[in-house]
Amino acid sequence: MSKLKIKVRFDYMGKSKGGKLFMGGKDSEHVAEEIRQHKVSLIRNIPVQGIHIEDIDMSQEIYSIYDDITGKRVTYAPVIISLSADTIEDLIRFTMKEEFRTIEILEPQEITLSKHDIERFIFKTSEELKEYKNYLERRIDSWK
After folding, report:
1. pLDDT tens for residues 17-39?
2. From CA 60, how far away is CA 91, in angstroms rounded?
3. Angle at the Cα of 129 (from 56 to 69), degrees rounded to 5?
4. Which domain of life is it from (predicted)?
5. 65 in a domain, yes or no?
6. Does residue 142 form part of some domain?
7. Are 14 and 33 in contact (CB under 8 A)?
């Protein structure tokens, strides 16, 4: 299978950090932008096996929505990453993140998977889900 050319969108959430009365509090837009800058810096500087970053677009505007559960405004800073992936398994590892929103496969126009490819794809997806579950459990435990 030839390399996959992909566009992936991640939306990084920012929550306001309340400061002491008039001192040092950051609004959620500022926090979302800082998180986006930090995550993009990591993506640019830390290689991921099988993933080759071609372009990073941070020109999308920061947006806010109302969260029905918390009753608060939540702000997101989107980024669109153009990349090539050696395999679908590499792509799964790269996209299995809470911030993942959309994916567009640019090339090839058609993908044919063998029985072995599908088995590897399902196995890798399962492994990534287990890792993500462990990550979420650690996060929840740290809040207790």
Report:
1. 655 444 455 688 999 999 999 99
2. 23
3. 80
4. Bacteria
5. yes
6. no
7. yes
Radius of gyration, alpha carbons of the chain = 18
For 33-64, write each residue's pLDDT tens digit: 999 999 999 999 988 889 999 999 999 999 99
CATH number for position 14: 3.30.70
Count how many domains the chain has: 1
Task: Map residue 42 onto helix, strand or coil.
Answer: helix
- Rounded to whole angstroms, how far apart are CA atoms 50 and 83? 10
Q: Which of 138, 107, 37, 29 is nearest to 75 (CA)?
A: 29
Q: Which two tokens stand for residue 99?
A: 């911030």
Angle among Cα 92, 139, 70 to the nearest 5 degrees reads 100
Q: Which domain holds residue 53?
A: 4-111
Convert the pLDDT of each residue in 81-103 to its tens digit.
Answer: 999 999 888 898 889 888 999 99
Question: Which pLDDT value is given to residue 113?
Answer: 86
User: Cα(78)–Cα(63) distance, rounded to whole angstroms?
Assistant: 8
pTM of the model: 0.81
